[in-house]
Amino acid sequence: MIRRILFSCLLIARLAAHAPAADVSLTVHPDRVVNRVDEMVYGHFLEHIYHSCNGGLWGELVWDRSFEGGGAGAAWTLQDGCVAQEGAAADVRLLFGDPQWTDYEFTVEARKTGGEEGFLILVRALNAKEFYWANFGGWGNAGHALERGIKGQSRWNAVTRRHDGQIETARWYRVRARCEGPRVQFWLDDELVIDWTDDGRGPVRGRTGVGTWATQTQFRNFQVTSLDGKVLHEGLPSLPKHKAGVAPAWRPFGNAKVAVSTDNSLNGAQCRHIESAGEGGGLVQQPLSIRAGEVYRGSIWARGDAAGGLAVRLVADDKVLHEQALAAPSAEWQEFAVELKPTASSDHAELQIGVRGPGRIWLDQVSLMPESWRRAGGYRPDLLQAIAELQPPIIRWPGGCFASPYRWKDGIGPQHQRGPHPKNMWDDKEVNSFGTDEFIAMCRRVGSEPLIVINIGTPQWNRDVPDNDFLQEALDWIEYCNGPAESKWGRVRAANGHPEPYHVKYWEIDNETWHQGAETYAEWVNRFAPAIRKADPSIKLAACGSAGYGDGGNGLAWNRVLIERCADQVDYLSIHHYENPDRYAEGPRAYEQFFRKTADLIAASKNPALKIYVSEWNAQSTDWRTGLYCGGLLNAFERCGDALEIGGPALFLRHVSASAWDNAFVNFDHRTWFAAPNYVVMKLWREHYAPQRIALEGRTDPLNAVATKSEDGKTVYVKAVNPSDEAVQVEVKLASGIPGKATLQLIAPGDLAARNTLATRDAIQPQPAAVRQDGPALRFTLPPISCGVVEIRVE
Question: Rg (Cα) of the chain, in Å, rounded?
Fold first, then answer.
C-alpha cells in the first residue's frame, strides 16, 4: 500500500515538473447558475443480493438461520454415503476424472432436497467454458435439455429442444450419460430424454461432474466406465476444500446423521433432522468472527427426543471457547435461549449445535448476535458506518428483481415467525430477518429517505400466486408504513414496536417490468397509481423506465410509451443501465445524451414536471475503470439536474463469496470490508456536493468536468475526470470574485487494473495534491486516468 501511495506522489511531482501533452483552460462563472442539482442524485440502492442484508448489514451471525437452503453460495459436503450441495448459488459444479477421457458412460443417482430447479449432469467438461451438461428441471423446473459451452462463445446455449418435465423434491433419480464420438445421450430413470449428435464444434474430451442451479441436491453411486466396460471411476468424488473466511455454511460434525427435513418445520418449508446413536454430533457453521469480552445472545428452536439435552458451543482451533448446555427438547417446538461468552477471539470460529448422547431432534431458526450490535439496532457496525460515510440522501429497497416476488408481510413481526422469500435468488433463500422496520430504522440512522419498491404481481415472478390481490397488498404496505396507529395495519406496526407512522414518501411501481411490454405495464401504472395516491396523497411515485440507452426496444421507445400513457400519474421515470467497464470514458457521455432525449419527451408530455430517476447504474467491475465511470456519470447527473433528480447505483453491498456481479461499492466477508473505486469516487464527490451548477466556459476535452457552488456562494467546486492516457494541465479562472484558498483531492492509481481488496483496503483513496495560484488563475495537473475535486473559497 505504501509503495502505491509513494508511486502516486512521485508521479504527480514528475508530471508537475514537466509540460504535459494537453492543456485545458476553463473559466468558471459563479454568477451564472445553469441548473439546480438535487442531492438525491447521490442516492443508493439496497437490494437483497449476495447477502447484502442477511449475512451482511443485518447483524445476525448465522447464515440460513431457518435451513431453507440459502447460506453459502456453494456448500459441498459428504453425508451418509452421498455428496450434498446445500448452497443456493447458480452454476455450482463439482468436476472429477481425467480431462483426457473421450468416450465413456457416467451413471449417478440424484435427489433434489430443495430449491427452484433440478440438477446438472456434466460430461466432456474440458474447462469452465467448454462442456456439455444435461439440465434436468431447468428453466424454473419446466423441462430438460442439453446445453453446450464451446470455445469463443461467451455463454453456453441449449442445443436440443426442451423435453417437458419436472424434478420432484425428495425423490431419487437414476441418471445415465453416454458419450460416443459426436453423439451424447442422457437417460433419466431409464428413459432416453436427450440424444444429440454434435456438429463438430463441441468438446471431444473432458471430465465428468454434477452440479446445481439455485437448488440443493444429493448425489450417490457415482461410476464412470469406458465403452468396453473398464471402470474409470467408482465412488464419491473428492470435494473442494472449504476456504475459511469466504462463505459460512452448515455442515455436519461428529457421528450424528444430519438430513434436510420437510416434516413439520417451524416456519418455511424445511428444518434439519439430527439423529445420534450415542456419541453425539450435530451441525456446525464456520467461519464466524468472534471477540473475547463480547456477549453473544440468540436462540434455537428444537423439538424431538434427546434425554441428555443439547449443547451449543463456540470452537476455534479445536478449543472450546464457551459451551452452554440446554435442556432436553419435547415433542413440540420450543425456543431455547443461547448466551455465549467466548474466552478468546477468532476470525474462523465455529458455532456447533449438537445432541448430548443418543437422540433424534429437529432444529429450526438458529440465531446469534453480539449484544453490543443488538443494543445499537441490530446492524453490523462497520457496514452501517460504510453506508453512513456515503451520506445517501435516499435509499431504494428491497430490489431489483428481488422486489418483484417479495411478500412484505413475511418480513415483519417476531423473527422466528417470518417466512422466507418465495424464490432462491442471488446465492440465497432469503429468510427476511431484515424487513420493513429494519430498513426504515437503518435509513433513519444514516439520515436517508426510504424508497420502497412494491410487487404488483407480474406473472413472471408470481405465477404461484395468481389470485392474490397485489394492489390491496401494496395499499396494506402503505398503511403499515404511513397509517395512524388506529388503522388496521397501523395497529400491526404499533404492535411491532413502532406506534408513530414512518411517513415513507417515495414508492416505485415494481422493477424492470420490460417482459410485460410497455403498453401492458402502462395499464398497470394507470391502475395502481390512482389507488396509491388516494391512500396517501403525499406519496411520490416512480414508474419503471428503460434499460440501456438505445433508441428502440427497452430504450427510448419504452420511455416514449410510458411518458405518453402515464406521465401524469407518476413523479419519476426510473431508468437502468449497466455499462461495459471498458467504456469508462465514452459511456457517461452517451448516457447523458439519452437523458436529454428522454427529457425532450417529458417536456412535450402532459406532465413536464416528471423527473428522471437513474435507479440502477454502474460499470461492471471493481477495478479503477469503475471509478472513472462513476466520476463521469455523476458529473452527467449534475449537468442534467434540470431533468434528473434521483440516482442510485447497484450493487451496494456484496459478500465476496458471491458467484457473479463483481461491481459492488461495499465488498465484505465475515470479518471486514473494502471500498471499491466507485465507492471512493462517489464518497469524494458527495463530500463536495453543492446545489447550484454554474457555467463552465472553455474546451474541456479530454476531461469530463462540472462546476458547482454552495448555496451561500462562498465555495466553488470543480469536479473533473481525466479518462485519457495523457496528463492534463488544467487552468481554472473565476469570472467573478477572487479565488482564495484552493485545495485538490486527487485519485490517481495509475493503472486501470488497480483495486482495493480485503488484504489491501486503501490501495485506492484520495490524496491531497498541489494547486498553484498564479494571480487570478489556479493551475493543477490531472495525471492519466485520474479524477479529482478542486475546492475554491471565493473572496
Answer: 29
